[in-house]
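Task 17 of the worksheet. Students: predict the tertiary structure of the chain below and write it out as structure tokens. Keep your answer in the requested format; marks are given for formatting as well as content.
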Amino acid sequence: MNASTAPRKTVLSGVRPTGPLHLGNYVGALRNWIRLQDIYNCYYSIVPWHALSSEYANSKAITGWTFEVAVDWLSVGLDPDKCVMFLQSEVKEHAELHLLLSMITPLPWLERVPTYKEQLKELQEKELNTYGFLGYPVLQAADIAVYKADLVPVGEDQAAHVELTREIVRRFNRIFGPVFPEPQTLLTEVPRLAGTDGRKMSKSYGNAVYLKDSAETIRQKIMPMVTDTRRIRRTDPGEPNDCPVFTLYKAFVPKDKQDEIAVGCRTAGIGCRDCKGVLLEHLFRFLEPVWESRRRFEEHPENIWEILEAGNVKARTKAQAVMAEVREALGF
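Model answer:
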């Protein structure tokens, strides 16, 4: 079997619906997903059950956030004719496999997940000492395994999660017989995109520029952004690689223009305000077709739910077949 006739590998990735998506989500995931949908069998899931692990007190808002995520996906170019877009919570096999995998996952495996203690510290305003928050990597493993995913696209900071899935799958196969492939990490370069306060762009930090933000809102967010602290006066030279604004340049401005602005910064040939103006010009150039697509989708919200339901059916069909194998392996 040559490469042209070999079956496509399966990719699985998902997004927690905790609000609309921002530029960091696009650069870190969606831009790559759009490319992958032309190469692999891609399952892209909105995962409300994962959202509950930290947002259980706001459960009634999750449906609205789910709609926001779906509109963002479609607006930037995910195509339901090329990938399966679906809701995790509408495919109950995720929950069944999560339960079964939780029976064989040692507790210390979960306690050593790097992001567990980090998130407890970062989100101290929320009560996250719950089984759901500790055990979400098992649900994540179920999300991946129930489609027999071969590849999981992540940045380096998330690679440990995929490795835990591999360990859980390996343990299942050893105890009950080979059912699941061990998913491989599809490492993607995820540039660090700074938010409006200079920290990593994040909804939880309140520093995000959202894909749905209007031009005026984005202007109001970008113009006051902190820059290289060397540039106290207009005549002070700076270093672009130490400037939070330049992380956005690297993501949205062509390389030749990046180089031109970098020289201007280092020689004080351009001021920070002018630099931000150039960034806004390129950001708007990228976002205008996204905004136009969003307007069309928002005019017919029923179409969004129809697209997701069609994806639910496809995902459910695959998951049901895999779970039949799982039950047979367990002797149920």
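Marker's comment: The mean pLDDT is 93. The chain has two domains: 10-193+301-330, 213-294.
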